Amino acid sequence: MNTANLQLKGLIMAMASICDAIVEKELLTSGELNAALAKAKKAVEDDDDHELSDANRAAILFPIRVLQLAEEAGRRGERLTFSDYAKLVGKLT
């Protein structure tokens, strides 16, 4: 597997943990964090400046979708693995 892919997996899971900590420390509410992630997702979806294929756009959206799922899981008190999140994103797209 490409080393960059492994590094991105680690970064995404680290960001999921940071998002959990932000909510736990009450720096943002769960709703505010979800709104920020939705805003990021919309910005990617609305970007007409680049001629992206659907596959490329899905690749860009993947980490945002993982973080959204991690936020939802955190609200339920669940901790999932990267593989769990990847499977869930695959089912949603």
Write the layout of secondary structure elements.
Layout: H1 3-24, H2 30-46, H3 54-75, H4 82-92
Helix pairs in contact: 1-3, 2-3, 3-4
Question: What is the straight-line distance between the termini?
Answer: 23 Å
Arithmetic mean of pLDDT: 90
Instruction: Give the DSSP E fraction (strand runs of 2 or more residues).
Output: under 5%
User: What sequence of helices (H) and strands (E) makes up the elements?
Assistant: HHHH
Silhouette? globular
Number of strands: 0
Number of helices: 4
Largest sheet: none
Specify Rg, calculated over alpha carbons: 14 Å
Binned, the helix content reads over 70%
What are the low-pLDDT stretches, counting only 5+ consecutive residues below 50?
A: none
Protein structure class: mainly alpha
In short:
The chain has 93 residues and is mostly helical.
Overview of the structural elements:
By secondary structure, this protein is mainly alpha-helical. It is 77% helix and 0% strand. The protein has helices spanning 3-24, 30-46, 54-75, 82-92. The longest helix has 22 residues, at 3-24. The chain is globular and about 40 Å long. The two termini are 23 Å apart. The model has no long low-confidence stretch (mean pLDDT 90).
